[in-house]
């Protein structure tokens, strides 16, 4: 049985930009935690009913940005994110979801703390989602 080094590639996804590598001319790829971070962001930014034949995929956080900010919107967004990650990204163990409302910027900052199934150290992905009129 061969052991794998900590730097070996466990997860590999195509980069959604589909740029060619400058030397090899092959499609660029993302590996390990970068692949998982991109996947998490794509899952969260996909609206439900947006994917054919999979209406439950994604989350409705963009829709929630248009709700009245009464203090519960951040909790609702965090709950939607937890549901989406637990159901559609099997490569991670979700540790924490933080949603910080930015009313003056018409959006939220989302921070997701996770641990890849094959790693012991937690990682964080953060991004800003704004309401577009």
Structure description:
The protein is an alpha+beta fold. The chain is 26% helix and 26% strand. The strands form 2 sheets. A 3-stranded antiparallel beta sheet has the order 3-4-5, with helices on one face. The chain has a two-stranded antiparallel sheet with strand order 1-2. The protein is globular and about 50 Å long.
Q: Helix amount, in percent? A: 25-40%
Number of strands: 5
Distance from first to last alpha carbon: 56 Å
Q: What proportion of the residues form beta strands (DSSP E)?
A: 25-35%
How would you write the strand order of the largest sheet? 3-4-5
What overall geometry do the principal axes of the alpha carbons give?
globular
Helix tally equals 3
* Helix-strand topology string: EEHHHEEE
Assembly state (oligomeric): single chain
Low-confidence stretches: none
Secondary structural class: alpha+beta
Backbone CA Rg: 17 Å
Reported for the largest beta sheet, the result is:
3 strands, antiparallel
Kindly report the average pLDDT value. Answer: 81
């Amino acid at each position: 049985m061969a052991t794998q080094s900590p730097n070996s590639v466990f997860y590999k996804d195509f980069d959604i930009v589909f740029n060619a590598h400058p030397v090899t001319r092959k499609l660029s790829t993302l590996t390990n935690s970068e692949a998982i971070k991109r996947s998490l962001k794509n899952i969260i930014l996909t609206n439900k009913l947006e994917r054919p034949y999979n209406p439950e995929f994604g989350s409705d956080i963009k829709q929630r940005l248009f709700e009245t900010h009464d203090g519960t919107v951040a909790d609702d967004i965090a709950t939607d994110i937890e549901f989406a990650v637990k159901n559609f990204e099997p490569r991670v163990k979700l540790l924490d979801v933080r949603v910080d409302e930015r009313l003056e910027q018409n959006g939220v900052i989302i921070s997701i703390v996770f641990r890849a199934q094959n790693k012991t150290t937690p990682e964080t992905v953060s991004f800003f989602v704004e309401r577009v009129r």
